[in-house]
Each structure stands twice: as structure tokens, then as C-alpha cells.
Amino acid sequence: MTARKIILSVFIIVFTFQSNAQVKEFFKTDKPSDSASIGQLALYDLKQGIKSVGHSFTRPLHWKKKDFITLGTVVASSLALSTLDDEGSALFIRNERHVPNIFQEAGTRFGSPQVYFIANATLYGVGLFTKNEKLRKTSVLIISSSFTTGLIQSFTKTAVGRARPGQEGLNSRDFRFWDNRASFHSFPSGHTVLSITMAHSIAKQFGNPWTKASIYTLGAVAPISRLFAGAHWLTDIGIGAVLSIAVVDAIDKFLFKTDAYDYPDHYPKKEKKISWNFAFGGDKIGFVGRF
């Protein structure tokens, strides 16, 4: 099944869910009690995950003026960053020999789908069998966000068909739309989407800024390693990160508003969205997150 057919199927399912009263009634589930069985908890989590994916895909239908302004800012920032794609990629590739092998290996493995899903399955399994709601909630957030961002980035890779760095005679402005070859699947970075989705989902569970910073630092290993490996351009990484953060924030807000899981008492007061701004000038360039 092609990426286009997969995306079309998802949209049909989502809109059916949004418009069918019987389907909506099925997904109306009371929060399980402390004495609920593992099977009941798993079914409840599955329903919350499906509703979260549906919410994230239909969210653009409810965007307001400020959301479109944010989108415009991201697009403008990406275009500005793209002017440094070729030079930036060449700089990273030239310096790959100075990067420890363990860093590159860790980045490649952590951002791979196999390791990613094993880690998620382990996290959810522990939360389910110990009936730890915080772990279950975190896993549902990660899995539903990953499913959403994974479909979007898989479709975009094929639709955009951007050439990867290092190909003879090609640069960051070369595209082969609807090309199935891996050498034209640069935009956006799949490793970045997976690692930032997990890092942001986990970091949101902690209020301590140092803990958050540590988690984001680990999450940045995969994206940075892909730059040194010459697998992606700067904008591939930047858009992948923005996409992941936007989807995680949307789903986390949805779970919080619908009271699907218990959140810490301080969450409404202390939890803040990360504000992403494009920094350009002097000796710095890139996206700066403030939380």
C-alpha cells in the first residue's frame, strides 16, 4: 500500500469517527477504577489513543488566526534556514571524523523504528501490568503522537521527494515529487520525528527544568547524528522537530482537557508550551525553545 493510500484511509477513518454518532458513543468510556482489570485498562488506553489520533488529524479544521500566524512563522523560518542547507551540510559532513563513533551509533539506533517501538512497548507494558497510570498516560501520548507524525512524515517524504545530501550533482533544492527511492526521502527527518516525539512526551511529565533539559539533550542526539552522517539537511531536522512538538502538544492538551488521565495538581499552573523562535544572526542560527 502506497503512502497516499495509507493517508487517505486514515482520513476516511478519522472523519467517519467524527461524524458517526454510534462510533462516538462507543468511544465514550468512563475512566477505569483502581480495581479495573488489565484488559479493561488496555481497552481504555486503546480508545484514548485512537481518539487522540483523530483529534490531531482534525485539529487544523479548528485553527484560528493565531494558529495560521504560527504556521506562517514556521514556513518563513524554514525558508530562511534553507539558505544555509548546503553550506551547513558540508560543514557537518567535513567534521564527522571528529565525532565519537558511540555518538553516531547511539543516534542511529535510538532514532530507528525498531528500537523506538521496543522502548515504547516496554514502557507501556510496565505501566499496564503495574497499573501505573502515569506510565500508561505517557505511553498513550507517545504512541498516538508517533502514529500521527509517522504517517505525516512518511507521506511527506514521498510527496516532496527531496534529494539527500552528498548526491553527485544534486543539492538541497533538488526534488523528485512522488519518488519512492530512499535517496529522495530527505524531508523531513524520520529519526528526528521519532526521537523528538519521545523526548518531548517524556519531558512534559516533569516540572524540573534541569530534568527537562537532560531529556531534550538525549533526544537531540539522533537529529544531530544524522547531520554529521550526511543523511539530512538542516531544514529536514528543523521541520521534523517542529512537527513532533506540535503534535505532542495537541494530543497532550486533548488528553488533559478530556480528563482522560490524572495529571499532577500543578500541571495547569506550571505546565507551559514550549515557545519556538527562529534565531538568526551573529554566531548562532536555528530554533530556540523557551519553557
Question: Please, could you describe this protein's structure?
Answer:
By secondary structure, this protein is mostly helical. It has one domain (about 5-290). It has 13 helices and 2 strands. A two-stranded antiparallel ribbon has the order 1-2. A hairpin with a 2-residue loop joins strand 1 (about 275-280) and strand 2 (about 285-290). Helix 7 (about 115-130) runs antiparallel to helix 8.
Notable features of this structure?
291 residues, mainly alpha, two-stranded antiparallel ribbon, 2 strands, 65% helix, globular
- DSSP strand content: under 5%
Radius of gyration: 20 Å
Give start-end ranges of low-pLDDT stretches.
none
- Write down the overall mean pLDDT: 84
- What class would the helix/strand composition place it in? mainly alpha
Distance between the termini: 40 Å
What's the arrangement of strands in the largest beta sheet?
1-2
- Share of helix, binned: 55-70%
Overall shape = globular
Helical stretch tally: 13
For the sheet with most strands, the description reads: 2 strands, antiparallel
Counting structural domains, the number is 1
Topology:
Elements: H1 3-19, H2 21-26, H3 38-58, H4 65-82, H5 85-94, H6 101-110, H7 113-129, H8 133-160, H9 190-203, H10 209-219, H11 221-228, H12 234-257, H13 267-270, E1 275-281, E2 284-290
Helix pairs in contact: 1-3, 1-8, 3-8, 3-12, 4-12, 6-11, 7-8, 8-9, 8-12, 9-10, 9-11, 9-12
